[in-house]
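Take one protein record:
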Amino acid sequence: MAEMNLKQITDKLNSEFTGDGRKLVFWYDANAEFSEDVDSMELMNAKVLHLEKDNQFYIKYFLECEDKNTNYLVYAPFAKPNIRENHLEDTIRYSKEFFADRASLLALDLGIDEKYKPVLQHYIKFFANKDRTQKFYDLEIEEYNRSTIEVALMSVLCRNKIALFEEVLRCVLIDGGLEDNKYMLEFEKYDLLDAFWQQVDMAFGYSQSDPTLEKLVMTMLVTYAANTINMDMPQTWKNFISYKSGNIIAFMDNLMNSLIYSERFDELSREIDQKYGAKSVIENMETETLIDSNIFEGIDEILINWIISRLENEDVNAKLSGKIIPEICTERRKKHFGKNYRIEYLVLENAYYIIAAGKYEFISGIDNLVKEYTSSAFNIDRRYRYFYYYLDSLDDTTKFEVLRDLIENIYTNDYLNKITVNWNMEMNEAEGETGLVLQRNFFSKYIHFAKDRVVVIISDAFRYEVAYTLFEKLQADEKCKASISAMQGVLPSYTPLGMASLLPHRTLEYNDKYEVLVDGKVCASTEQREALLKEYKPNSRCIQFDSMKNMKRKELREIFTGQDVVYVYHNQIDARGDATKTENEVFTACEEAVKEIHDFMRRLSSQANSHHFYITADHGFIYKRDKIEASDKISGASRSNSLGQRYVLSDDTWNTDGVCTTTIGNVLGNDDNRNIAYPLASDIFKVAGAGQNFVHGGSSPQEMIIPLVEVKVERGKKETSVAEIALVSLTSRITSLNTTLDFVQTEPISDVVKETQYRVYFVSDDNEKISNENIIIADKKDKETVNRMFRLRFSFKNQNYDKSHKYYLIAYDDKNDSEVISHEVMMDIAFGDNMGFFD
């Protein structure tokens, strides 16, 4: 009960107890509206005496025999009995009766027009509870009529803080079931069911003689479908289509796109799908008509099956509504249900680009081949990597089996074998000179004369296409300035020689045991490499990445402070790929390597005062998912002195078809005439116990084009950012002159997330402000997302809005002078509309 009502009643009662003589006042409260309040009333000159139906004789005795002097308010929480049954009738004759009309008091207190008093009286049972009544007051409704009163009553029962019917319906559908809904039971208890369905009719155009929540949801889903599927709805659905599609679309979009309610929306959609067989209906529609619809989950399954069919037939020109397959995949995986099929769409997108690349065309000139690979052809390797990266993350890949076989055949036979043969033929023609910087000249060219501290991160088997992924990630990092180039790797393209080539040296050679020597010394261990590095750079270190992963800031500083150059050895890809049990995880290792290296650089820049980095590799790799049959392997390598799957080091000369040779001296720039043999194509030698999917050591762009990524990270204090805000639901349509939107502060305030203030408002495309302006102070520290939410109410100018014009929701950060949200919306408001209210 509102305090103003109590005060009015109390003042009126106190006036009855003024003057001389004893006063008795009887108050029969027929609906027990004030039973919870009567004892809290501050009566100045009287006491409260509670009358019950079964204590009338006692009250009569008490008033006329026991206490004849005290003023009493005799309160009865029931209607006054008739004369025959009222044993206090004679006492009442020389006393007074008090009448309190709660409906009148509510109307007076809230400023409600007298003509709506019958509405309040109709729902007077609701106001019998003090807490409910106070919550009704707290809604602070600006204009009262029958509609706003009834919506407010329902809002209180739904525990909403604002009186909007859309919020009432959202609460009913989200927090309760479609049957035995707890809120509908509450509405029935307070005689609000008819009002609820009348509001549904006004807002969403759903009206039936026997309305149900299930049929309402079906109506909303079908209406949404009818406006997003480009064909006439089947006859069985036509009766469900509402004429108020705009309101329905806006409401459903809000549920679908909500960070909080989207899961419940999915449940509702699936529930209706199962009940009414929506999937079977959709399956009979033309696939092209479904491309823009997103209301049922089954639509994405239909589209995915269509794409698989087109790709299996290598139909890369296939389109739906003018959109090619990658465009479909990109758009669909961003949509509501499409997010559930994100992995499938990414598998298909990568498959498309492999198929679209078609058969590899030979390129003349090694310099042209290098340019082609480093600018575009590497993407085929990357697409192949991501095809399997995403495919392997699916629980069931049955539907992709035929497509997988096709991809494997195209990649291996039409691309990998051909580009490798092309590479080796052109390399031979150019006598092993690609025109790239030689890997063995890395130190002298990039490190020796560096003026600031340089951290060299050498990631084992970090091939060019993986490095390019890192490069793109760095380009998106505002703290990093990055560039990428390539070097010509050594042959054999394996760790012992690749690691040695990146060290400073005067001589690089093999001894009689085919051990790699740098300046005559073995360099197989980290300690041996550090000793060699210190001969050229006394203030230097060599260290394994894994030993630093869990170091604290102080420990990191001790390693890097005072050093001119630090070599960091990172081994994620090669470690996984070289082990037979895990070689099929190598593409997962590539993703992890990119993230680890990026995070590591950011960490060193903030904790170890190191800002200049080079990321490179000892060698690349070739990976094919299908294993090579033993009969297809190159035999005869067993007589060599040192061998791997992709190379042979030998004192003897090779004359075998499909095998190329060069001398160690040609590779290392010395007079060593011993031979290096390697497959002309992407084949492997027959080597006992070796893996077959992940290989390196040979000559191919994938193995020998070594990436070199240079990164400079901006210096500065510990990175901080301001607290950001986001719309909870990505509203795309405004349908009312008064609209409420929910925002969330995305992260709590902390030492790295600082508070700020935003102005939020709507503007037209010519920058005219068309709404009120709200202020959000983003200063919440609560870790629970729900406690960092803001609800803003926008009132729009009552004017004509053109649906063809663009309007924007703007959030502006004044402290940092930046516009952080510019979200386009459609203004779908009819000028002069009464906003759906009725009197």
Notes: The chain is about 40% helix and 15% strand.
